[in-house]
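Dear colleagues,

As part of the handover before I leave the project, I'm documenting each prediction I ran so the next person doesn't have to rerun anything. This entry is a single chain, and its sequence is reproduced below.
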Amino acid sequence: MAKAADIGSKRLINLAPDAWVQWVTQCPEVVAKEILGSEFHWISRETDVLVKAYSATHGDFLVVNELQLRYTTQMPQRMRAYAALAQERYRLPTYPVLINILPPPSTLTIVNSYEQEFLGLRAIQDYRVINLWEIDAEIVFEQPLPSLLPFVPILRGGGEVSVVQRALQALRADEQLNELESLLAFFASFVLDTPLVEQIMRWDMAVLRESPWYHEIEQRGIQEGARRQLIRVLEQRFGEISHEAEIRLEGKNVEQLETLMDSAIAVSSLDEFVSILSI
């Protein structure tokens, strides 16, 4: 039986862990010592990667990596929980980093901290945010950062055919990187015509299905379709809905959206529906 391809976050970071932790921390003296287990019960996912790092200035610490396909309103709370659980488990200070792969909907604002106040008590967690669409594609080749090669098409300036072909050549030049070609093709399809992508590189669906982002794209497509249908029903019944209501629908899973669809049909006013969203 053929071995399943490994093109998830852990595999990508493990291609050049020193270069990765230096890039995300912006500290050139940092080195990666070990990629640790990141199974923390209910928040364990393939996109979470925990790296034990070291610098002469700061000693041992943890780089908490979350590679998120698209930012959601749940991410600040998730980063807070992940950083705290990692610190508790390994007894080391944490440096949390959120890497957003694709831009979120225009209704969402990306934040770099979690803040909550309840009964006079405050909970705060800062984390670094890296938006890949703001990163210059050239740094992938100059530093180099092989972990980012599959993402080149969606980086700033990376959507040109010539730049995608440079990334492709780099993958094909290294036997360890060959299996990442399908992931490169996947992200190239966001900026180039699919027939062109299929013409210049391999599009192996069997390999691509091993990617956590492929599954998330599939799920997001179903989720976004359900969200748009819900908004359409609300607009047909009550006219234009508020920006706040649209934001509250972001991040709802398909099951929640289906339940809200039942409510949208049953309620007698938009205010009544918004009050249900607040529950």
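The chain is about 45% helix and 20% strand. Residues 1-5 have pLDDT under 50 and may be disordered.

All the best with the project,
I.
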